Each structure stands twice: as structure tokens, then as C-alpha cells.
Amino acid sequence: MQKLPKWADVGLIPAINLALALIVSGLVVSLIGQDPFEALAIMVRGAVGSTYGWGYTLYYATNFVFTGLAVAIAFHAKLFNIGGEGQAQLGSLGVALVCLAVPWPHWTLALPSAIVGGALFGAAWAAIPGYLQAKRGSHIVITTIMFNFIASALLVYLLVGALKAPGMAPETVRFPEGARLPSAQEILAVVGIPFSRTPLNISFLVALIACWGVWLLLWRMRLGYEIRAFGHSEPAARYAGISPLRITMLTMLISGALAGLMGINAVMGEQERLLQDNVLGAGFVGIAVALMGRSHPVGVLLAAILFGALYQGGAELEFETSVPREMVVVIQALVILFTGALDGMVRGPLEKSFLRFRNKPKPGVPAE
Amino acid sequence: MSDPAIELRGISKSFGPVHANKDIDLRVMPGTIHGIIGENGAGKSTLMSILYGFYKADRGEIHVRGNKVDIPDSQAAIRAGIGMVFQHFKLVQNFTVLENIVLGAEEGALLKTSLGRARKLLKQLSDEYELHVDPDARIENLGVGMQQRVEILKALYRQADILILDEPTGVLTPSEADHLFRILEGLKREGKTIILITHKLREIMEVTDTVSVMRRGEMTATVKTAETDPEELAELMVGRKVLLQVDKAPAKTGETVLEVRNLQVVDESGVERVRKISLEVKRGEILGIAGVAGNGQSELLEVLGGMREGTGEVLLNGAPLPLAGAGSDARTRRRVGVGHVPEDRQTEGLIMNFYAWENVGFGYHDDPRYNRGPLMNNHALREDAEAKIAKFDVRPANCWHTARNFSGGNQQKIVIARELEREPDLLLVGQPTRGVDIGAIEFIHEQIVALRDQGKAILLVSVELDEIMSLSDRIAVMFDGRIMGERLPADTNERELGLLMAGITDTEHEHSHDEIEQNLAQSSGKAG
């Protein structure tokens, strides 16, 4: 039976988790002699207090939507894909190769091609662990995390070799002008809304479409029905004639493709060249985003915006006060810890108090 | 008259909105066997869990031998002299019998002294109560009947004089069950008090002195067993008159639908589960496969249902079915007319987190009726679900409930509705009424017989011998992956089938129970 009403599951628990994380963060901040309330105010103002803050917040959020959706869809098939980092790196490579291959005349041509390139490379990188899981039973957690290291090494190899631009830095040459994506500032200027110059670009809309697409897939399409059934019970999937191999492979391909799409935002939309470290941990943040978002696209979107705000607010905090950069990482880590790992700590007592609250018998409900 | 061994006064327990026990009074007299009977979900297990300290009652008192006691945990229950034998044994598989008995009741830091004492006491106990077990055998090498004895010995070693047995015969062959009942009689003679929880009327009638009936969390009656009969008890359990015997006309069989030749199944760990068996099922006939759980029946169903690969030959209406590789999956089986009510509805037949309407299409979800291109036609699914829920009287009649929120019987009705409505040529049915209440059992049996009468072939696997005897037109007994023999229900009896289930074909001779035990232990040892 349903232990918690839906609103408590999707709203109250994340809110309590977040509040606990902020309280502990506040304690840590005051321990190093800073005012926690002032720190919080700076973070909030920095993240959402201006179009500049919003621009960066949503730019980061775009990354996390892609990696969060990647983790979320794999969760539905009970696959713990923690290789979003590596898949995003390979996706970035795919995006970069597409951008560099052709002197693109206009971004409307470059973007769809880059989406295909990023998705294909990300999917391919996820396909190998998927196959090993489905066919050989190698645990996907182990293989995907190992593939993160391989991806990172592969990128370094390419960026100091075949793809290296002239000069010292391990990076590619700049993408052609025609591959540049319109920024939020440019898009909003068309309709007369002033917006600060930020890396937020049209990829945000692609991320929103991806959210809708994942929702459609999971709850409206036959494949999604099969993915969810397989995730709940593998024997049931076999009973229904759903091939575990097929579902594992397809889910990992879609998951990898979503992670790979992150490249269009970070690489094509902002950096406009392929750098050695272009993912910056977004693959791992995606895990927390998916956990906090309850693996639902809407939840993922909201959680991604929250983490985007934390990133941006943290950067402002570091800039404006003497709170060291490491402290910002600590705060982010606490949020991940409380929303992800310590979820059960809040859930258990909350379920109990709800049960006690609704302690009235209903006819026709079976006991035991 | 002496104080009751156990007296419960006004015990109530709720789980959220579910009132599992409502104001229960119970008096169990010392030196008796007291049966507690009720349908699944009637609250029997909850009540015993309260008595054994797993749950705390919201209200009410527990008195043991006239003294009010507080039982906050199982340690307290043991101190009060209460021992419990669970349905699922709680034994350490790779420990010996002796080690298991001492576990949790060791004295001092050195194991040796405890083991020595236990060995002596064990010898004494086994002589006294006919509870013979080799103290140095490892649990994993023992059959279920033996393991159950170890559980009883464990309780006795902790000086229990009130013994609760929760559905003790669920995993036993009839002869093992008989032996268990003799042990219980012996314990009773020695002055022990026994509480037997079961849903089997036959057992209640056979061994108990007094029986209490539970329904929907309430204790509806306590009667002397000698003064009642199964019909009355069934009525008390369900709250209305129940047909205990399946009402069916003789089978009108037609041509062969399913033909199995030399079917062999080897599982993932290389153990041969089905050993080249052959059988056939005709139109309009129910072939029942009897056997103790774990003798290859599950694997047989899984291969025929397309959930597992095998070798040999299987013909459906004369056309061979692939047993491995392409076309051997469940989807293809459904397409050629094989319906399957799986043994475990919770992990196989239903997705517990899916709504009823989602489950109604499960396995048939690629049917054009339920689809619009790559999208599911959820509207069609819901319409279909509502029709099936109405026709099969699923309660609550709400297709927006998740499968988890239905009782066992109603979950099974959803599965039965889905599989039977397709009118498959061959229906595979595994444990159709496991965990299903009596009222629903009657209904499910009627549905299966109705499908037979439409001229469909039915292969029924059940560990409930009563069910096999009353539903089948022909009975095959499986033991250790082989078919030990086929009988007609009219020409056989429980004793004969019980011996076949224990792997003894020579049914003319008297066999000692130890021989049967040994046989079963060997087969389960091999299987495990």
C-alpha cells in the first residue's frame, strides 16, 4: 500500500532533505567563522537575484538535466548507470567532431547534426557496459565507472595528439562561426527582453524537449512500458516475453545518448572548442539530480535547476567572501548526501508519522 | 480448572488504515492442540507475531499461565516459554543441526561446553518425542521435513512449553505432514501446548482439540473440533456458504493439444531439473502435476511458457515449438495460443507497482488493440481493464489501484482474467490458489473448469494435493525431475500419491517414514 501521499513523496521529502543540508552547511560555515545567513543570502542572490545569475544557473541546470535524465531512465530499468561522466565526455567528443568536420553555414544545420553526433558517441560508450551486463553479467556499476576513466584517458590522448590545436593547451581549435549556438541574450533580444551575457543558450530548450521526450517514452510508449516492467521484475519481464538483453541495451543506449547531449550545451554552446575537462563532474551530479527528482523528468528538471543554483550561488560565494572554494564543494556535497544517500533517514520517520496520523480503519483493505 | 496456557484479552493492532486485529480474545488451554484458522489476511500471522514479540499490540493484554506479561521482543517470548516455528525456516544453511540449535542460546565464551550440553539434551528430546535428527548433519543436506524438526527442537531446547507453528505443512508431503502430526501428539501428551496456524481445514479436523476461526481481523468463533465439521468452519471463515468440492462434469476429451517428448531442462548452475519427461494433454482435459515444491514442476512450466530454454520436443496442435533461441520466448508462445498463469504472481505474473489497467495488458502489450504506433493506447487498456474487473469481480473495482494494493485473491483474479479471456488453446497454470482466500479459490476453480469445458487443454501444477485431486482429470506425479507415474483421480488416493511424491513407485509395500525422509533429503540435497 501507498505509505506516503504523493505530495509528501515528491515535495516534502526533498524539501526536508534540502533544509537539513542547508542547516548542516550553515553550521560548517559558522565553524570557520563566517556568518551562515549572510552566506546563504549571497548564494541566493548570486544564483537567482539577477538575469546574470539566472543565466548561469540555467546554463548549469541544462547540463544536469541531460545527465540527470540519463541516470533516471536507467534507474527505471534498474540499471545504475554511473558512467554519465564518461558518456558525456564521449558525447562532447562527438559534438566537437561534428562541429569541426564541416564549415557550418548556420547553427540551424549544425545543431541537429551535433545532437546526432553527441547522442551517437554517448550511446556507443554506454553500449559496451550495457552489453557486458546483459550478456556476461558484469555489473554495470563497475563497468560504467571504469569506462569513465577510459573516456577521460581517451580524451587526453586525442587532445594532445590528433585533435590538438597549435599552441600549448590540450584543446581543439575553435569551432567555425556557423556552429555557434544563439545565446539566451540574443534570443531574448529578438522579443525585446534584456538579458545579461551568460553562457545560457538554446540547448536549454533542447533539454526541455528531452524531458518531455523521456516522459513520453516512459509513460506513453510501449518501449517505456517494457523498460519499467523490466525494472520492477526481471522474471516478470521474461514471463511477458520482454527480452532482458534488448531492454538493457536499448535503455543504456538512450541513457548514454542523453548524457552525450550534454556536449551541445557545454562544448558547442559555451566553450566552442573541446577542452580536456569539459564535463566538470556533471555526470556525477546527474546521479543526485535523478535521485532527488525521483527519476521523473519534471523532478529531474527541478532538481537540475536547484543544483544549477547551487553551482552558481557557490561561485558567487567564493567570489564575494573569504569562504574558500572547498567550502562550496562541501555545501554541494552535503546536499547530495542528504538528498541522495540519506533519503531513508527522513523517509522512515515521516512514513511512520503519516501512518499514525491516518490511523483510521478502512473497510475492504486486507490485513497482514 | 487450571489457568489457560495463553490468554489474550482485547488485542488490537492496526497498520495505518488496516485493522489487522480487532479486539481479539483467545484462551488456549494447557496440554491441548489449538488450531487457528482463517483466510489469508484474516490476521492470524499478525496475532502470532504479537504473541512472539515482533509487533506490539496497540491495545490489549497477554497472560501466560495466569500471569500478565509484557512481550516487547522475541527474547521475552522465549523467557515466557513460547517457541515459534516459522513458515520460512530461520536456519543457517551451512551450520550443523547442533550448531543451529545452540545459535543464540550459547552459554559462555567457549562453544564446546554449549554444544556438549546440547548434544545430551537433543538425544533426550529426540527419544522422548520421536524427533530423530542427526545432530551433526548440515542443514543444507536435510530435506524440509527434517529442517522443520530442527526448528521444533530449537524451540524445545529453549525450554518452550507453548509451541506456535505457522502453516507448518505448506512444504511437506502428506506423509511428512502425518509424521509431524504424530510428533505434535507426542508433545501434547508430555503436557506441551501447541498453537497450529493453518488455512487447511483437513489438518484442523485431524489434529486439533479446539479451533478458533478468524475473519477480517476478528475472532469469529472458538469451537471444540469434535463438535464441528469442515463445512461449518469454511462458512465461519468466509462468512457465507462455500462449495468445498469442485463441481465438474466428466471430461470430454478431444485431440491432443500439447505433446511433450523427452523434455530436458538444465538450470544455470548445471543441475538437471527436468529429466527427459514425456506427457500429453488433450482438448477438454486438465492434467494435474502433483509433487513437492522443487521437483522440476516450476521449470516444466517455465519452459512451456517460454521463460526458460530446454531440449527435447514439444508439439502444440501438432506443430513443433522451438525450445531455445529465436521464437522460444513467451511473446511467441502467447501468439500461438499458450496462456500462462505463473506460479508466482507477485514477481512474474504482475508488476506490483503498475496500475491494474497496466497489468491487464501485461504480456499482451504488443497486441494491436492496445497500441497506436509506438504509443500505448492507454484508453483501450483502461476500458479493457474495467470490463475484466467487472466480469471477474475484482475488488476493489478500481483500475487505478496498483497491483500491490489488491489482496492475493484479487491479484490472482487479475492474472486469471487476463490469461483466460484470451481463450488460449493451452493454459499453463501454476499454483492457482496459493495465498488466495477460500472464496476466491472457489471462483478460480470454476473459471479453470469452465475453460476446460470450452474444449481447451489445461496443464495444472500445484503443491496442494487437494487441489490436484479435485480439479484434475488425470494426475501425473513429479519427483526429482521425473514423472513417477500417472493416475486417474478416481483410482488413487492421497497415500499413493504421497508415496509417489516421495519417489517411491512400489506403493504396495509399507514404507517407513525414515526411508521417505531419506529419499526426499537426497533429492533436495542434489537439487540444492
List key phrases describing it.
heterodimer, A: 368 residues, mainly alpha, ABC transporter involved in vitamin B12 uptake, BtuC, B: 528 residues, alpha/beta, Rossmann fold, 6-stranded mixed beta sheet, 22 strands, globular
CATH class of the largest domain in chain B: Alpha Beta
Write the CATH architecture name of chain A. Orthogonal Bundle
Q: Structural class of the secondary structure composition of chain B?
A: alpha/beta
Radius of gyration of chain A: 22 Å
Number of domains of chain A: 1
- Please state the overall shape of chain B, judged from the principal axes of the Cα atoms: globular
| Quantity of strands of chain B, as a count | 22
Return the CATH topology of chain A: ABC transporter involved in vitamin B12 uptake, BtuC
CATH superfamily heading of the largest domain in chain B: P-loop containing nucleotide triphosphate hydrolases
The unreliable regions of chain B are none
Uncertain segments of chain A are: 360-368
Strand content of chain B: 15-25%
**CATH C-level of chain A:** Mainly Alpha
Overall pLDDT level of chain A: 90
Biggest interface and residues each:
A-B, 32 and 54 residues
> What CATH architecture of the largest domain in chain B would you give?
3-Layer(aba) Sandwich
Oligomer: heterodimer
Termini Cα gap of chain A: 11 Å
What is the rounded distance between the termini of chain B?
Answer: 50 Å
Q: State the strand order across the main sheet of chain B.
A: 6-7-8-3-9-10
Question: What is the name of the CATH topology of the largest domain in chain B?
Answer: Rossmann fold
Membrane topology (chain A): Multi-pass membrane protein
Main location (chain A): membrane
Protein name (chain A): D-allose transport system permease protein AlsC
Transmembrane segments (chain A): 12-33, 53-75, 110-128, 140-160, 200-219, 247-268, 274-291, 298-315, 327-346
